[in-house]
Amino acid sequence: MARRSPPQLHTSRRGVVSFRxxxxxxxxxxxxxxxxxxxxHRQSRPVPSLSAARSRIPLHKYSGDRPKIAFLFLARHxxxxxxxxxxxxxxxxxxxxxxxxxxxxxxxFDEGTTRSHFxxxxxxxxxxxxxxxxxxxxxxxxxxxASALEEPSNQRFVLLxxxxxxxxxxxxxxxxxxxxxxSFVDSFLDTKDQRYTMKMFPVIPKEKWRKGSxxxxxxxxxxxxxxxxxxxxxxFQKFCKRSLPLDPSNKWLYLKHRxxxxxxxxxxxxxxxxxRGLKSEMERRTVTYTTWNLLAKKAEAKSWHPxxxxxxxxxxxxIEEIKKINHVYYETEYRTEWCRANSKPVPCFLxxxxxxxxxxxxxxxxxxxxxxxxxxxxx
Length: 379
Description:
about 375 residues; alpha/beta; Spore Coat Polysaccharide Biosynthesis Protein SpsA, Chain A; 4-stranded mixed β-sheet; 3-stranded mixed β-sheet; 10 helices; 15 strands; about 15% strand; globular; disordered C terminus
């Protein structure tokens, strides 16, 4: 007959086993926390890049040719307002500007596709297909910046859409941008849209998440940070995606599943530069004016698009109203950004969008965008 162990012995053995499992679980959890902590600090620190070794110097120390503004156009196909930009560029010194266009792969700017010689063969040879609201948009921006950085004399980088127009002549814009040692990047706390997801952590800490307009003007060192980034961009590719429109009859699915909706080009540059500790090197506003349909219903807010300027609403009065704006209010931060360049008060906006061809023709016919003798000087 088999002997049975005393009840106390069984209880003791179970206690020892239970204790060991608890100890193993606690140690495993501790190791996981330490690993995450290590990853967080390693990936959230500024990543050593080419920008640390190149061109991070004040503009007045730049040696070589005259410093240039690189005009970077994001086009869907051709440039419908090329005739207006032709007048604008003729008002400047070609030694002070460079032009780059990202368009449909294979599209060539020549005598048959543009009315301005300034755009001849200025398309990128490595352009990609771009879809609004997807990471391909910021990939195209990075390609434009990378191409422009190949020219050492490019010291300012302005991103423009194919519906943008200049509000001043070349000389004024050149002086405005070159006089400031900072980038102009619309950047503010994103507290309403809830586009951040914890899947982005630890590469992108939630407190560094920012929102703003994609239409930016950068100093060279910031352009290099963006091009050399190999940690934040992949996270945007994977986790910052727009949600596809729902059928009106299935709107209840949106509430049930709480679909995540993220627009990469409204967050990438702002978040990256904030993560790199460059806030003090930015004027946290854009120099490109956009007006929105403030009368839209809340239900339509998810699909807001800028209002379009046509020949009916692009006269001298409307343009002058834009030029008079000298501050921007950011509701989510209760912050008023007074517009300055090199600490001096200036009009907020140098460019505006979205303009139709008819609107651009009116600007020219009424002399609202004049070509003028370039009076810029460099030292």
